[in-house]
Design a protein that fits this description.
By secondary structure, this protein is α+β, with helices and mostly antiparallel strands. Helices cover 57% and strands 9% of the residues. A hairpin with a 5-residue loop joins strand 2 and strand 3. The mean pLDDT is 89.
Length: 539
């Protein structure tokens, strides 16, 4: 019996040395296998030691088991097998609740899974260990990151100021997952939608999340055929990334199954928004076989192009054509009177209110250019595969049947002076008693005429005098009716420059900043916002 025990210990020592060597060589799969064999033998020896108590030998075995579980957790985390890696950490901490290496490993995994509070607890506990002094600087770095990300995830307050002022140099800012005052409900627009549960001011962040997967490239301008071929390769790579991510994570696998694949949308179950929070318990979730046909149709319906009508891409990714899957934003429907925009920062997207949103109002994006006439928008919605029946479209469908409206549209197509077109539209709205948002809808539809008239046809504007509204009044009504837009912001800034020369007053810059918050969100201080406004004016 003693000889068997000695042989077993020799084998364990050999396995432990081999597993450690593989870990140091970063051969993760082989390391996991070796540690699994060692752990099995170690647990077997511990069970036999309990039958014949030898306290010193038992403590030695338990210490070896704790370290082996911790090392296997490290190897599994490198393979992104995080669920099993976390189980290993828990097993190690059951043996030694303050094991420094395990607490550090578990904290880093929880941080990568956006479970900031739990990660913070691990790092705080690790800080109490005597070994913490050797890695105090790195540990304090993790603590600070956790505190910052936990604050972001709780408040939805992000600050990109330094990155913007420094010209987007260096790494992308680290952003937390955030879900604001929203819920998923049945939508009158289509299927299910995202709704505000309380009033949201323009510029306020609604949610922030990282993509399940993204794919980017530079498309050639010269050849449409080559661009199409590149996009096909992109799409294949993107699908492969989504499938790989979903096959490794039960949570992502389940969230994919919750998304629409374009069929029977009216009978789909409405999920609780808490399902999308990182803290959601995964133990009840199952991992079925991935249905490739369903995944393809799901990605076709829910993927977002980064450089879109309702989006702004910041930093180096603005040079690329990019596509990605962001789960919760995929529930946001289209409206020609949208109230939200998105800001792309690395692989993260921040969704914010582009105008004030009332509690109970559905959150909507513009899937295409809404600063366009009703007939053109109708054509674009057909390309997207739906018919827009928003309040704006219903109003404009009715008013566009008027002869005067048809004459203005035809006149513009035939080269009618922009200032004359603006005057005729404004006079028509006075006669038809058009008020409030409806006036903003029509001005948005003929935005090209308004912007060109104010920018280049000063004689015409002076000719009509007060019968043509000031540019600021048009900007205000358009942004209130259809949300802020970068082109509207540029027009406002151009008007300031014409009136004020090189400078502008405090009141004017406050108005510009407020308008810019609807375009970019409240994610930076005023100086950084002004930097971004200036960059936008030069694009």
């Amino acid at each position: 019996m003693k000889e068997d025990l000695e042989m077993g210990e020799e084998l364990m020592q050999h396995l432990r040395s081999r597993a450690t060597e593989l870990l140091l060589r970063e051969e993760w799969n082989e390391s996991v296998q070796a540690y699994s064999h060692f752990i099995s033998l170690c647990q077997h020896h511990i069970s036999h030691t309990h039958q014949r108590p030898d306290l010193d030998h038992l403590l030695k075995l338990q210490k070896s088991l704790c370290l082996a579980l911790s090392n296997r957790a490290e190897a599994r985390s490198r393979l992104r097998d995080l669920a099993n890696a976390l189980q290993d950490c828990d097993g190690a901490l059951e043996i030694e609740g303050t094991h420094f290496k395990t607490l550090l490993c578990k904290g880093k995994m929880l941080l990568s899974l956006n479970r900031y509070s739990l990660a913070l607890d691990c790092f705080k506990a690790a800080l109490l260990d005597p070994q913490a002094g050797l890695k105090c600087e790195a540990l304090n770095g993790f603590l600070e990151r956790c505190k910052q990300l936990e604050h972001q995830s709780r408040t939805g307050v992000f600050d990109l100021s330094d990155w913007v002022v420094n010209g987007f140099r260096g790494k992308f800012p680290e952003l937390a997952e955030y879900i604001g005052p929203v819920e998923i409900r049945k939508s009158e627009i289509r299927g299910r939608g995202l709704f505000a549960t309380k009033n949201v001011d323009a510029g306020t962040s609604i949610l922030a999340t990282k993509a399940i997967a993204t794919e980017r490239c530079i498309l050639p301008d010269q050849s449409e055929e080559l661009a199409d071929d590149i996009q096909l390769v992109m799409w294949k790579n993107f699908i492969d990334k989504v499938v790989e991510s979903a096959s490794k994570c039960k949570r992502l696998h389940h969230l994919l199954s919750v998304l629409s694949n374009g069929e029977d949308e009216d009978v789909l179950e409405v999920p609780d928004v808490n399902l999308f929070r990182a803290e959601t318990d995964e133990s009840a979730l199952s991992m079925g076989k991935l249905d490739m046909d369903k995944i393809l149709s799901t990605l076709d319906v829910n993927s977002l192009v980064e450089d879109a009508a309702s989006a702004k891409v910041l930093g180096k990714n603005s040079d690329y054509y990019g596509v990605g899957l962001w789960i919760l934003p995929a529930f946001i429907n289209h409206s020609c009177s949208p109230n939200a925009r998105r800001l792309h920062v690395g692989d993260h997207v921040i969704v914010h209110a582009s105008r004030d949103i009332k509690a109970g109002e559905e959150i909507t994006f513009a899937y295409f250019d809404v600063l366009s006439p009703w007939r053109k928008r109708t054509g674009m919605s057909k390309i997207w595969g739906f018919q827009c029946n928003c309040k704006r479209c219903k109003f404009e469908e009715q008013i566009c049947s008027k002869m005067e409206m048809q004459e203005i549209q035809t006149g513009l197509e035939r080269g009618l002076n922009m200032g004359d077109a603006v005057y005729r539209l404004e006079e028509g709205m006075r006669r038809w008693m058009v008020r409030g948002d409806e006036k903003g809808y029509l001005r948005a539809s003929f935005w090209v005429a308004y912007s060109e008239a104010y920018e280049s046809d000063h004689k015409t504007v002076r000719r009509w005098g007060r019968r043509i509204p000031a540019a600021e009044a048009v900007v205000d009504s358009v942004s209130k009716a259809v949300g802020s837009d970068e082109r509207v912001l540029k027009a406002f800034m151009a008007g300031l420059k014409r009136r004020c020369g090189g400078g502008s007053g405090l009141v004017e810059m406050e108005r510009a900043t407020k308008l810019a918050r609807g375009v970019y969100g409240k994610v930076m201080k005023k100086q950084a916002m002004r930097t971004l406004i200036e960059l936008g004016n030069h694009e």
